[in-house]
């Protein structure tokens, strides 16, 4: 009998396992998953609290997990119109999640986030004289709304950006610590959020410095005040103002013009002005432009003579690239006169281009470092280009020590007239 009982038990277990498999397969079918999504959608429509929404989200998570585990039929790749049940279900889940998020909140955290953005707008923006009163009015209006909603009186001490931003920050701290419930205090949170968004909109509508045209900005800063009324009508007035500032020796307005105008004409002429002046105050603006490997800014750096520029300029003479830029850069390095330039400049005495070799020799002469005597003597003896040899002789005369002069004096009968001329100067 025991054998019969065992066989019956095994058969019953097998049947139960088969039924469970069929039930699981049914539960993971496209139709069943679709029905479960219908139920979730109905529950979402009827949700009234955050807890209700949490339950719907949990249901969606379970459905999504079952969808991943389901073995649904795949569409025929050769049939563009073939149905893809898995993709359709995934789209439904995504849509329901979006609807779920839309129904959540509003939360106190949303208000705080909006206020933090408004605070940054206030402090990070340069307001015009016309825009400042609008900013003050926007903050005052918001503070009154806050007082009526949560009975908290906060005011800005002045119209200064720091004071206005501080008042907004105080409101944010109060709201953050008020433990407003998204269900019980829904109307209050919604009103605070709407007011915060209105504040941000009003701030964005207020006139800021960047809203002005370049001419309006310069006019507000008094850039044109140096012009007589009749000169302001001349075109372009900006260039006339730059010329007046050059005559007055006032560098700051000229640099302001360089940094403000998006005009090739103005940039070219302002750079020419700064080249004539060579002012230290223009270093930062010019060095920034020199990094783009433009010739005129490099020339101005030579005129300014700030040794900080050498780190940038040494890169411009490395290799056999732009010969014109290299010649200008070598000249600028010589004018700056930093001893750190002696070695990199001396290395260019071996350049393939004879004009670069010549510029390097003259640069060494301007640097005036005695370490350059031997390499210049070698150039004078061995270089095949007379122009380069003449530059080396000139450089040795510039260094001017007895050893340098003795080297040049030996070439009084040189084949090249320019070298002879330099030798006579040495003698």
Describe the structure.
GO terms for molecular function: oxidoreductase activity. Residues 89-104 have a biased composition (Basic and acidic residues). It holds the Pfam family HEAT_2. It comes from Halosimplex rubrum. Residues 1-25, 39-88 have a biased composition (Acidic residues). This protein has 427 residues and is an all-alpha fold. The protein folds into three domains: 108-210, no CATH class; 213-277; 294-424, Leucine-rich Repeat Variant (Alpha Horseshoe). The protein is 70% helix and 0% strand. It is built from 22 helices and no strands. It has helices at residues 2-27, 30-46, 50-69, 85-103, 108-124, 131-150, 161-176, 186-205, 214-220, 237-248, 251-260, 264-277, 283-290, 295-304, 310-316, 323-336, 342-346, 354-367, 373-382, 386-399, 402-409, 417-426. Helix 12 runs parallel beside helix 14 (295-304). The protein is elongated, with a radius of gyration of 40 Å. The N and C termini lie far apart (135 Å).
Write the layout of secondary structure elements.
Blueprint lengths: L1 H26 L2 H17 L3 H20 L15 H19 L4 H17 L6 H20 L10 H16 L9 H20 L8 H7 L16 H12 L2 H10 L3 H14 L5 H8 L4 H10 L5 H7 L6 H14 L5 H5 L7 H14 L5 H10 L3 H14 L2 H8 L7 H10 L1
Helix pairs in contact: 2-3, 2-4, 3-4, 5-7, 5-8, 6-7, 6-8, 10-11, 10-12, 11-12, 12-14, 13-14, 14-16, 15-16, 16-18, 18-20, 19-20, 20-21, 20-22, 21-22
């Amino acid at each position: 009998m025991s054998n019969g009982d065992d066989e019956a038990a095994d058969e019953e277990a097998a049947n139960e396992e088969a039924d469970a498999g069929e039930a699981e397969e049914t539960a993971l079918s496209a139709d069943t998953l679709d029905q479960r999504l219908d139920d979730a959608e109905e529950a979402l429509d009827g949700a009234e609290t955050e807890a209700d929404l949490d339950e719907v989200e949990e249901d969606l998570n379970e459905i999504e997990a079952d969808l991943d585990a389901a073995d649904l039929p795949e569409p025929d790749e050769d049939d563009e119109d073939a149905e893809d049940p898995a993709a359709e279900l995934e789209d439904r889940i995504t849509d329901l999640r979006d609807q779920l998020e839309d129904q959540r909140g509003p939360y106190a955290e949303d208000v705080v986030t909006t206020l933090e953005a408004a605070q940054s707008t206030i402090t990070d923006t340069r307001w015009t004289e016309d825009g400042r009163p609008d900013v003050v009015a926007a903050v005052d209006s918001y503070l009154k709304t806050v007082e009526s909603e949560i009975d908290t009186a906060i005011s800005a001490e002045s119209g200064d950006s720091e004071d206005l931003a501080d008042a907004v920050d105080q409101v944010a701290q109060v709201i953050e610590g008020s433990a407003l419930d998204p269900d019980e205090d829904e109307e209050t949170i919604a009103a605070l959020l709407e007011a915060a968004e209105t504040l941000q909109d009003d701030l964005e509508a207020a006139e800021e410095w960047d809203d002005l045209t370049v001419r309006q900005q310069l006019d507000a800063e008094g850039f044109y005040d140096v012009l007589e009324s009749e000169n302001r009508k001349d075109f372009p007035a900006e260039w006339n103002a730059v010329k007046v500032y050059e005559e007055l020796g006032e560098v700051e307005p000229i640099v302001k013009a360089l940094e403000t105008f998006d005009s090739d004409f103005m940039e070219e002429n302002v750079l020419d002005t700064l080249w004539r002046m060579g002012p230290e105050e223009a270093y930062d603006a010019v060095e920034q432009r020199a990094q783009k490997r433009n010739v005129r800014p490099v020339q101005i750096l030579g005129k300014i003579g700030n040794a900080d520029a050498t780190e940038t300029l040494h890169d411009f003479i490395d290799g056999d690239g732009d010969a014109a830029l290299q010649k200008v850069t070598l000249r600028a390095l010589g004018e700056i006169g930093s001893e750190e330039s002696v070695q990199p400049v001396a290395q260019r005495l071996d350049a393939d281009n004879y004009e670069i070799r010549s510029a390097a020799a003259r640069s060494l002469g301007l640097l005036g470092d005695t370490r350059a005597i031997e390499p210049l003597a070698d150039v004078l003896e061995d270089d095949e280009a007379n122009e380069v040899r003449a530059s080396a002789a000139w450089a040795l005369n510039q260094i001017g020590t007895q050893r340098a002069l003795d080297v040049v004096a030996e070439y009084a009968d040189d084949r090249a007239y320019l070298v002879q001329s330099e030798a006579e100067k040495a003698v």
